């Protein structure tokens, strides 16, 4: 198990390295003079030169790349371009925390109902119930989250007025009190992810129901509920765990549109602002944070799967 | 956000493989063997002919059955009708509406009606300027339907090519490429697209290429796993045994056997490309000038008005996006289902 | 055993009165069972009136080719059927209950207490995520035992199926155990509730003959121990013959002949049974004796209308009566009956006459391997899959290659063909000239000289190509001829394989298994090969189809003087076709001899064990030599003679120290063993009972 974890970790680090390189290349390739843009069109040339010096923008390619790696290692990305005097890390941290809250609430709502729906659909494969769940899931997963966000905002936030239409959380709200503000965007997350999770659970459950070991369990004389609990679910939920792992990764930072619609200060909106400013240190830090979160989530998912299935443990460990 | 369906596809692939490998006692034992054949010289030639005719008829029947399966699938029919409607809108928007996208709606008495809800004069209401929301929705189909299919097609071509090479040649090429693909997949597509567009500008070409490049890893992964399964089969060994080179094996032997996967993948990608184009537009990253009709941007420009209970200028274009993506995915789903039947 | 009071005598009396024998004390009694699968609203008949009884302590076997409905019958007895199955008539009585008419609770009780099942693929039959102990204990928990008791009973149950170290096995997951061990576990679970009925559905299919023999031994022992009624389904006639008291021969959803195993196998009374038995090379039949009997035509489709005799379309005796009148059950004697109008003429079905083929084996060596090894790198370890193999093929010779799975048979084939290169130092020569390591580097003449027929034609033929394209591309690539000339050659090839011209424009999917294999053979012969590797070419086919393919291969060899490397797990088939046989173990050739030499006189201890493991169709019971333990990992082979860990003749102090050389026991008979001919011909004493041990 340890060997598996270490191997998996090493692979993740290689992937992360490549990603950092890609991010670095993108900013490095940016046409135009960054220092000039930062200093403003009318700043004296000396100011621009000083800025170049200070930010290391004139350094050779690999020195700049190395500097970025050091930043990642020390979590010190320097000052933000757009908010002078503020450390990048101090901007990323609260945004990350905000995203985490939203993602947590979203999953808390999504997982139970979509797993239940997936199992029901699998058990009633090819019936009307199954077709409805599958088609509804497909449809809801097709809608961009900002679209469902807007619709929910109108229906529940404005028309019905049940929940705040905007997630501007007043300072001093308790953690519990924040839930009220987060509920609408969380519901938008449910709308998008219900379909994914239900469909993948359905597929996994169907294959577990068709498996020979399930037949063996029935032939032992076990009741259907025991067969499901002891034999089917443990195997059928593995793909669900894998997909959930990946999707949690995407929820951090991927919800740009949703965070904008609800005016919620998460990672996505932060990165969006950093990109449009442009604020390169913030942008790099934000994107790399998202990648790291993604890797942690997929690693976690793999570990859970390995725990659920000893055979997967062996296979993954020796990839 | 583009990866769940791919995971599902991958799951289906592995599932199919296991299903095929363990011959189910019930089905395996009783599976009807289709054609009649002469098994040895005791048979007359007549029976052989019968067998052939039967098989040819069977083949036509299978094709006809697949077609029928598609055409009788409500998901496919509804999806196709919706997509066809939006394509018509993109080609000839003037047929559907008397107003231009930037034309201010004037009543018979010449008065304008900005910020008016849906009515007989403007079915979807009017926006702050007084433009017809319905007209903007109809005209808004065009940018999305130009960008998305081209981007999807490019990504599928590139992904198929890479997937073939990685899945067949394996070795170091595959190892390195796999790591790069994984790096791309660890960031939501929208964030990378955002970065690229901010840095390289936002012409149509850049948008198409960006989406194509960012979708390529996902397509590659799907194709690769399919190709890997194919490459295990003995017909590939057999081709090597008659001295075929790698290119021939990949293009002539393997490629024809993965077309259904590629077609389904293309349809799925079109759906996601629409999704992505709309999201980019919502974020203000469109190729066109600020006043042209565009669903995503219209949502962005007007969702703030929801608080003032003016929902129509944002909700209608939002529903337009939803309808198109759902329709494309319904088609993809039916194709997938039929190709596996 | 609900009818204990009824005596067997009474039962026998009843049987003779009735058309289809029924026994009052039967544990399982299936009566006129008609079952259909509903496909798109149309019911398609699978079982068309199946009747048979199984009594306590009796083993009843159902044989037949795939699609005849034997597995459906087995699962119906447990009432485990797909949702679209409809019972259209008849009854299933098991353990005194009507199986078709049970509530859910009754069915659960029936499965946990009265009847249980052993399945074809033990690897899939166990839950990969749970430890063995828990899965076995579950079968006891359901009987009402608490956790601790259940675990204790599970341990005892594993001991009962002769597992040496039950505690350690209980701690493992299924993927950590071999197929044979897992099947023991499944059997242990099946016996948990002391069932009156045990249904075994192809319990040894997919296992090696050596493992199969051990599993069958176990079932035999347990049967005497438990007095359970056993229903055994197998397509392998040898398994049925060696295990069952009575057999039913199934065809197209009907039992066409039933009787005591010996009667049915030695004097079959139905044309189908005769055909089936004659299609198999048995009683030491060789290709030089005669062709194999083949059954013309195909199994009728599921759901096809078969108003009278189900076999009428393929029967050599069929006449007008057969097409108009349903054949009655004709008693041959008290226990043996057949469904045939022409009992008197069954004996007249001729077996093929002696062959005119001469099978001349040349003196010159076509292909030679010397010192060929192949080592794979796996997880940083060297795994030697082939160790210094020397082999030569004469023109027109068939070399049979046998050995357990994992012995390196396929690796040898693939290395020879250049699919993967051998290790440095090994030399492969074709007509005296060395060839390059991989096929892609080889010159055209070497490529066309060596071709292959694969086990699974579905995998071997490109499914999106037509037969014509498959053959033409091969002709063009291998012979260099193009255009019209290539087309002519394709037609010729097809004719030689007895493929009709119309088959050329079909895709593999539209062809039956036998036809597909003919296409694959045509492809192998497209470039007039000198040597063709046949890797289990008939193991995916039914026996009647297998016979036709073996005849074709034999005739082609006779006409073209091609050499074959023939790999098969079926010793009878190898014996029929091969001139010489090589026996492999852990990547080494242990014995190499003429076929006759292998089957008479002395042989290597491994060969001895291997041959004694094969269940005989002819009812000979040889002194079986159990092969203890599992095949060691090639990554970590035993010291000295690699076989010493399982050898029943191993000499302590010698065999585990020194690896024996290949020595010539008699002219042309080579063996890798320290023992002399005299020592090898001593009968061997088998010590005590062998237990299944874990391979670590």
Estimated structural class of chain B: mainly alpha
Class by SSE composition of chain C: alpha/beta
Q: Give me the Rg of chain C, rounded.
A: 27 Å
Label the overall shape of chain B: elongated
Q: What is the β-strand count of chain B?
A: 0
Query: What's the total helix number of chain C?
Result: 24
Q: List the uncertain runs of chain C.
A: 1-19
Are there runs of chain B of 5+ residues with pLDDT below 50, and where?
1-53
Distance between the termini of chain C: 43 Å
Work out the number of β strands of chain C. Answer: 24
Integer-rounded radius of gyration of chain B: 25 Å
On the 0 to 100 scale, the average pLDDT of chain C is 90
Q: Quaternary arrangement of the chains shown?
A: heterotrimer
Major sheet characteristics of chain B:
none
* Largest interface (CB < 8 Å): A-B, 68 and 56 residues
SSE pattern of chain B: HHHHHHHHHHHHHH
Approximate strand percentage of chain B:
under 5%
Indicate the proportion of strand residues of chain C: 15-25%
Q: What is the helix content of chain B?
A: 55-70%
Rounded to the nearest angstrom, the distance between the terminal CA atoms of chain B is 28 Å
Chain-averaged pLDDT of chain B: 81
Overview of the molecule:
The complex is a heterotrimer of chains A (319), B (341) and C (696). Chain A has 319 residues and is mainly α. In chain A, 79% of the residues lie in helices and 0% in strands. Chain A has helices at residues 2-28, 34-39, 45-55, 61-74, 88-123, 128-142, 145-159, 175-210, 212-219, 224-236, 238-254, 256-261, 267-276, 280-308, 310-317. In chain A, helix 1 (2-28) packs antiparallel against helix 14, helix 5 (88-123) packs antiparallel against helix 11 and helix 13 packs antiparallel against helix 14 (280-308). The longest helix of chain A is centred in the first third of the chain and has 36 residues, at 88-123. The mean pLDDT of chain A is 87. By secondary structure, chain B is mostly helical. Helix content of chain B is 70%, strand content 0%. Chain B has helices at 4-21, 25-30, 45-71, 74-91, 133-139, 141-169, 171-185, 189-200, 204-231, 234-241, 246-254, 259-282, 295-302, 312-340. In chain B, helix 6 (141-169) packs across helix 12 (259-282), helix 12 (259-282) packs parallel to helix 13 and helix 13 (295-302) packs antiparallel against helix 14 (312-340). Residues 1-53 of chain B have low confidence and may be disordered. By secondary structure, chain C is of the alpha/beta class. An eight-stranded mixed sheet of chain C has the order 6-7-8-3-9-10-12-11, sandwiched between helices. An eight-stranded mixed sheet of chain C has the order 18-19-20-15-21-22-24-23, sandwiched between helices. A four-stranded antiparallel sheet of chain C has the order 2-1-4-5, covered by helices on one side. In chain C, a hairpin with a 2-residue loop joins strand 9 and strand 10 (254-260). Residues 1-19 of chain C have low confidence and may be disordered. Chains in contact: A-B, A-C, B-C. At the A-B interface, helix 1, helix 6, helix 7, helix 8 and helix 11 of A face helix 1, helix 7, helix 8, helix 12 and helix 14 of B.
């Amino acid at each position: 198990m340890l060997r598996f974890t270490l191997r998996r970790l090493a692979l993740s680090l290689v992937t992360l390295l490549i990603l950092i390189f890609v991010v670095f290349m993108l900013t490095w390739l940016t046409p135009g003079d960054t220092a000039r843009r930062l200093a403003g069109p009318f700043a004296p040339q000396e100011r621009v030169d000083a800025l170049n010096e200070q930010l290391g923008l004139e350094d050779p390619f690999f020195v700049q790349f190395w500097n970025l790696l050091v930043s990642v290692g020390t979590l010190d990305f320097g000052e933000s371009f757009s908010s002078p005097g503020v450390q990048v890390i101090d901007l990323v941290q609260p945004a990350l925390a905000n995203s985490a809250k939203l993602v947590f609430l979203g999953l808390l709502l999504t997982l139970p109902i979509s797993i239940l729906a997936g199992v029901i659909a699998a058990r009633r494969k090819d019936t009307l119930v199954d077709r409805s769940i599958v088609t509804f899931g497909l449809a809801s997963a097709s809608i961009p989250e900002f679209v469902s966000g807007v619709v929910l905002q109108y229906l529940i936030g404005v028309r019905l007025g049940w929940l705040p239409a905007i997630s501007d959380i007043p300072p001093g709200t308790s953690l519990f009190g924040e839930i009220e503000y987060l509920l609408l965007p969380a519901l938008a997350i449910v709308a998008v992810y219900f379909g994914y999770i239900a469909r993948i659970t359905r597929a996994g459950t169907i294959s577990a129901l068709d498996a020979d070991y399930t037949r063996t369990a029935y032939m032992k004389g076990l009741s259907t509920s025991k067969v499901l609990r002891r034999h089917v679910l443990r195997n059928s939920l593995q793909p669900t765990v894998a997909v959930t792992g990946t999707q949690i990764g995407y929820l951090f930072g991927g919800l740009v549109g949703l965070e904008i619609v609800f005016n919620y200060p998460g990672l996505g909106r932060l990165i969006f602002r950093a990109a449009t400013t442009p604020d390169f240190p913030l942008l790099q830090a934000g994107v790399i944070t998202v990648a790291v979160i993604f890797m942690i989530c997929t690693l976690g998912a793999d570990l859970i799967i390995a725990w659920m299935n000893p055979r997967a443990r062996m296979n993954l460990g020796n990839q | 956000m583009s990866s769940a369906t791919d995971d599902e596809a991958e799951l289906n692939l592995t599932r199919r493989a296991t299903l095929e490998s363990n011959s189910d006692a019930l089905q395996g034992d009783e599976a009807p063997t289709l054609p009649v054949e002469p098994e040895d010289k005791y048979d007359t030639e007549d029976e052989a002919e019968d067998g052939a005719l039967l098989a040819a008829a069977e083949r036509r029947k299978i094709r006809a059955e697949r077609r029928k399966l598609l055409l009788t699938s409500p998901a496919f029919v509804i999806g196709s009708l919706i997509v066809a409607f939006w394509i018509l809108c993109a080609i000839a928007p003037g047929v559907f509406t008397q107003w231009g996208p930037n034309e201010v709606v004037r009543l018979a008495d010449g008065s304008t009606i900005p910020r008016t809800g849906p009515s007989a004069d403007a079915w979807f209401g009017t926006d702050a300027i007084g433009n017809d929301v319905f007209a903007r929705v109809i005209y808004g189909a065009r940018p999305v339907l130009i960008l998305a299919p081209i981007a999807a097609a490019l990504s599928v071509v590139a992904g198929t090519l890479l997937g073939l090479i990685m899945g067949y040649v394996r070795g170091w090429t595959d190892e390195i490429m796999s790591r790069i693909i994984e790096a791309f997949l660890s960031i939501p597509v929208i964030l990378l697209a955002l970065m690229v567009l901010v840095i390289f500008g936002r012409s149509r070409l850049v948008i198409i290429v960006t989406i194509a490049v960012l979708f390529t890893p996902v397509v590659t992964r799907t194709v690769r796993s399919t190709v890997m399964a194919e490459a295990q089969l003995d017909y590939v060994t057999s081709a090597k045994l008659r001295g075929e080179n790698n290119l021939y094996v990949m293009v002539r032997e393997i490629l024809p056997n993965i077309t259904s996967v590629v077609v389904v993948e293309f349809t799925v990608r079109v759906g996601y490309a629409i999704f992505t184009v709309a999201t980019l537009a919502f974020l203000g990253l469109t190729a066109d000038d600020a006043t042209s009709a565009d669903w995503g941007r219209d949502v962005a420009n007007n969702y703030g008005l929801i608080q003032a209970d003016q929902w129509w200028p944002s909700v209608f274009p939002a529903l337009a996006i939803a309808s198109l993506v759902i329709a494309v995915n319904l088609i993809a789903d039916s194709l997938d289902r039929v190709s596996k039947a | 055993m609900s009818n204990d009071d009824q005596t067997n005598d009474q039962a026998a009396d009843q049987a003779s009165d009735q058309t289809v024998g029924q026994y009052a004390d039967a544990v399982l009694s299936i009566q006129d069972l008609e079952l259909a699968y509903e496909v798109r609203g149309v019911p398609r008949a699978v079982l068309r009136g199946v009747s048979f009884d199984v009594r306590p302590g009796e083993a009843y076997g159902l044989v037949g080719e795939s699609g005849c409905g034997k597995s459906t019958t087995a699962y119906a007895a447990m009432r485990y059927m797909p949702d679209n199955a409809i019972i259209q008539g008849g009854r299933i009585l098991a353990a005194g209950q009507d199986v078709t008419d049970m509530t859910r609770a009754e069915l659960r009780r029936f499965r946990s207490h009265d009847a249980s099942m052993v399945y074809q693929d033990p690897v899939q039959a166990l839950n990969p995520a749970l430890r063995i102990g828990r899965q076995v204990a579950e079968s006891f928990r359901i009987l009402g035992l608490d956790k601790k008791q259940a675990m204790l009973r599970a341990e005892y149950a594993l001991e009962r199926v002769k597992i040496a170290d039950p505690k350690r096995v209980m701690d493992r997951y299924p993927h950590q155990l071999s197929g044979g061990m897992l099947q023991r576990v499944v059997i242990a679970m099946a016996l948990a509730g002391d069932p009156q009925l045990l249904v075994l559905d192809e319990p040894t299919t997919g296992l090696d003959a050596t493992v199969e023999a051990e599993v069958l031994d176990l079932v035999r022992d347990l049967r005497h121990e438990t007095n359970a009624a056993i229903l055994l389904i197998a397509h392998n006639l040898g398994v049925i013959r060696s295990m069952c008291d009575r057999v039913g021969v199934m065809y197209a959803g009907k039992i066409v002949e039933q009787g005591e195993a010996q009667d049915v196998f030695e004097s079959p009374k139905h044309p189908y049974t005769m055909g089936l038995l004659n299609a198999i090379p048995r009683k030491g039949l060789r290709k030089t004796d005669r062709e194999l009997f083949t059954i013309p035509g195909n199994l009728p489709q599921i759901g096809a209308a078969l108003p009278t005799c189900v076999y009428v379309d393929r029967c050599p005796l069929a006449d007008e009566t057969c097409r108009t009148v349903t054949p009655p059950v004709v008693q041959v004697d008290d226990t043996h009956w057949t469904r045939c109008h022409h009992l008197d003429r069954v004996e007249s079905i001729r077996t093929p006459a002696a062959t005119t083929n001469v099978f001349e084996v040349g003196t010159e060596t076509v292909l030679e391997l010397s010192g060929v090894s192949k080592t794979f790198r796996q997880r940083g370890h060297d795994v030697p899959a082939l160790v210094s193999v020397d082999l030569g093929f004469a023109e027109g010779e068939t070399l049979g290659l046998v050995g357990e799975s994992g012995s390196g048979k396929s690796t040898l084939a693939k290395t020879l063909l250049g699919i993967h290169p051998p290790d440095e130092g090994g030399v492969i020569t074709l007509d005296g000239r060395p060839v390059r390591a991989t096929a892609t580097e080889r010159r055209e003449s070497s490529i066309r000289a060596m071709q292959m027929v694969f086990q699974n034609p579905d995998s071997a033929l490109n499914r999106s190509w037509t037969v014509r394209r498959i053959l033409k591309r091969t002709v063009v690539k291998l012979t260099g001829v193009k255009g019209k000339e290539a087309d002519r050659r394709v037609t010729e090839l097809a004719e030689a394989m007895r493929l009709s011209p119309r088959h050329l424009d079909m895709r593999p999917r539209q062809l039956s298994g036998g036809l597909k294999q003919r296409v694959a053979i045509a492809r192998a012969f497209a470039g007039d090969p000198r040597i063709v590797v046949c890797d289990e070419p008939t193991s995916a086919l039914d026996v009647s189809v297998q016979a036709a393919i073996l005849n074709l291969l034999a005739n082609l060899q006779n006409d073209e003087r091609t050499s074959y490397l023939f790999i098969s797990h079926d010793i009878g088939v190898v014996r029929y076709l091969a001139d010489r046989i090589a026996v492999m173990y852990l990547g080494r050739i242990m014995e190499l001899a003429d076929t006759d030499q292998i089957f008479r006189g002395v042989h290597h201890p491994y060969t001895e064990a291997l041959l004694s493991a094969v269940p005989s169709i002819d009812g000979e019971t040889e002194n079986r030599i159990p092969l203890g333990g599992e095949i060691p990992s090639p990554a970590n082979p035993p010291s000295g003679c690699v076989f010493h860990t399982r050898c029943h003749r191993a000499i302590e102090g010698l065999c585990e120290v020194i690896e024996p050389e290949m020595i010539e026991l008699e002219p042309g008979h080579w063996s890798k063993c320290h023992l002399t001919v005299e020592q090898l011909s001593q009968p061997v004493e088998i010590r005590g009972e062998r237990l299944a041990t874990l391979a670590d």
